Each structure stands twice: as C-alpha cells, then as structure tokens.
Amino acid sequence: MKRITLIGLLLACVLSNVHAGEKSYKYRVKLTDKAETVYALDKPEEFLSARALERRAKQGIAVDSTDLPVCESYVRKLVEQGGKYLSASKWNNTVLVQTSDELTAEAFKKNPFVESVKRVWVSPDTVYPSNADRKKEVKNVWKKQKDYYGMGAGQIRMLHADSLHAAGFRGEGMLIAVIDAGFYNVDAMKMFKKLDLKGTRDFVNPQSDIYAEHSHGLKVLSCMAANVPHVMVGTAPEAAYWLLRSEDNDTEQPVEEDNWAASIEFADSVGVDVVNTSLGYYSFDDPSYDYRYRDLDGKTSLMTVSAEMAAAKGMLVVCSAGNSGMDTWKKITPPADAEGVLTVGAVDSMRVNATFSSIGNTADGRIKPDVMAMGVHASVTGTDGGTSFANGTSFASPICCGAVACLWQACPWLTVKELIDVVRRASDRADYPDNIFGYGIPDMWKAYRLGMEMKPR
C-alpha cells in the first residue's frame, strides 16, 4: 500500500477485471436534486434498517433528505447513455459510473439533473492476480504469555481499557465497521475463531475475495477483535463486526473516496455504531488531484464530508491521523480533518509521540489529532495467524476505537459529540492540547466516570 496515508438499484454492482490495453474510466456524477425519488421520509424503514433508525432515535436525530437514496430514474438515464453503475452516495448525492471512453462523460453533463462530472479513475495497465494458495501461509502457531492480554497488554493498559473490561464492558452489543484495504486470511485464522462477524462487502471489486486482498485490514481488525487469552486480546473482543473494503492498493486515485463514501453509508444503513478507518488521502497518482493544506478545513475532501455526515447520523468515526510526520506534507490526511470524528495519532510504549505521526492543526484552526494511542511496535496478528508487530497510526486508531466502543457500551446515553468530548477531557493533555498530541492519551476509566456523571436521572 503506497499511502495507507447502497442503494439497491435495479443494476448489480459488477466490476469486471480490466485487461492491459483496454482503457476504462470512472466518473463521479454530482446530481442536482432528489426530485424523482420513489422513497418517502415517513417510510424510512424502506431504506434504513431498524437498528439504524434506533441509533438515530436514541440520539434525537431525525431522518432527512440526505438519507433518501439517489434517484433511480437519474441513474437509469446515465446507464442508457453508456455508463455502468458502480455505487452511489446519497449523502453527497453522487453516482459513480464506469465508461469505456471519455465522450460519454460529456453526454452526462448535458442532463438537467447533473450538476458536475469529475473523472476519478483511469484504468491501470496491469492486473494483479490473487493468491490462490493463501491459506497455506496460515500456521496458527503462537506462544502463550502470563498476562491475560498476551501481546496486546501494553497497548490496552496504556488507555486503561482493561478497567472497562474488568467492569464487564468488552464491546458486547456494539457493532463496529472496519473500512480498509482487505482482510487477508482472516477466514483461516484461529485468532478470530470467536469473531462475531455480521458480514463483508467489497466496494472496490464486488466479485473479489475480501480475504485474498491486502493484509492491512487484518492487522487493524486484530487490534480490536483478537480474542485468544494469554496470546492476544483486542480492545473490543466481544463486539460484532462488518468488514468493508474501499482501498484499492494497485493505484492511488480519487475513486477511493467514492468507495469509502459508499462503504460508510452502507455501514450506516445496517446500523453500525462505530467505524474505524485507517485510511487517508492527500496525494494521488495524478498530482492535479492532490489536496493542499488549505483543504484541511473539514469540508473539502469527499471522504471528510462523508465522515462528518456519518457523525451527524449518530455514528462514531475513529480514524488514523496519518503517517506523514517525517514527510514534506507532515499534516493529517483527510478524513482526519473532519470535526465530528475522533482522530488518533501514535505514541510509543514510553508515551512519546512517533516521529511519523501526522500533525495538525486543521486549516480553520481546530485541534487535531484529538488523542494518541500505541502506534509504535503495536501488537497485531500477522499473515501466518500468529502475533506480530507493526508501526503506524493505522494501528493506534483501532486500539483506541475498540476502547471507545466499550466506553459507549458502558455509557449508551451519550451522543457521538458527548462521547468524543469525554474522551478528550479524560486525556492527559486536556488542559493544554496542541497540534502534535492533541488532547493526549485518554484514560478510558476516567472517561467512564465522566460519562456516568452525565447519566440521565
């Protein structure tokens, strides 16, 4: 990975393999309205699950026009004009379509219901085959430790998440979505034998095997969901999970933001409570798409806007700050600039900031990252099914995410905004936050006590 830096329409989301020499394009078509929608706000059960509606109701969030799926009649017209429907974002009112030529995009622009058309992907020259013998890599061999948490003890105790676990809050009843690049061999590992998996979905290539893709998501998932006592236990071992793929590791193009938007909207529709995403983008294969510092304003990147919308729908989004601290960019990467998300940077076991951890603040002066967690020599599950170590804010994020999910289990009356607030206030630099540590390293037991003070009488 270069920079780890749904509408149920009449059309199937099928993405064919692109062969060398066959040029193909993907376009983000921004629609003007939802005037021809066949759905109604007074019948939200037709496009949102009962769990999604329950989450909104619990936090006093009304269903509004942004929840309505994009107009099927508009999509049908784009298909008639030569586009192949791939996905849609109802929050952004956009449609992702694929074409075999660029002239088709010009036809799209002439439609009265189209506001803009942006090319977000050009087919690469090569196709990378999957590893058919991948499961043979899994040995499921490990050594037991004296500590109950095994190799994950240090990163859990740093946040005092073990205190939440001891009080009975281990994530049960919470639904977490992991949006990532693939979950290599998760289906063959004993480390995840107890995993409460609700399902998988691939928004890059619906026909692919999500367990044959990149290993990044495997390592991220393990920080939360591993559940083998005395070997490795994650921060939310009893939560339920959706595994979603939005990152295409073969190229770095803006379409991955569209994939991510479709992923998080799917997560919302099935009632997910918490989302972890250890993905972020500021630089692309085509430099003309690169973001600038001024774009870290919480409202420019499609991914950032979607993350902000997710928060408005009552989901907690936890994201990695990025690993650009030693690069020329240095700054956080979208969607880490979103105001309503919990952005996590990395520290080592001595609580010193990792030099690679991206820094803030946002372009409009907000404190980012929000908090810090272990991201240097973090314990993860390796591709052989045993324990391993990895560096990156990619792992600090899920370590923190699982802990906050347990906190929310303990204090279900908190809204997303209140949840983030208590985590910030419970962090060790809350009185003097800065652009490197944010509010510091959170103490989840302190956050729990603050949350209990807010319990309705």
Automatic annotation (TrEMBL):
CDD domains per the UniProt record, alphabetical: Peptidases_S8_9
Short name of one Pfam family: Peptidase_S8
Gene3D superfamilies linked: Peptidase S8/S53 domain (3.40.50.200)
Every Peptidase S8/S53 domain range: 171-440
Keywords: Hydrolase, Protease, Serine protease, Signal
Signal peptide positions (record): 1-20
Active-site annotation: 180 (charge relay system), 216 (charge relay system), 394 (charge relay system)
Domain of life: Bacteria
Family: Belongs to the peptidase S8 family.
Protein known as: S8 family serine peptidase
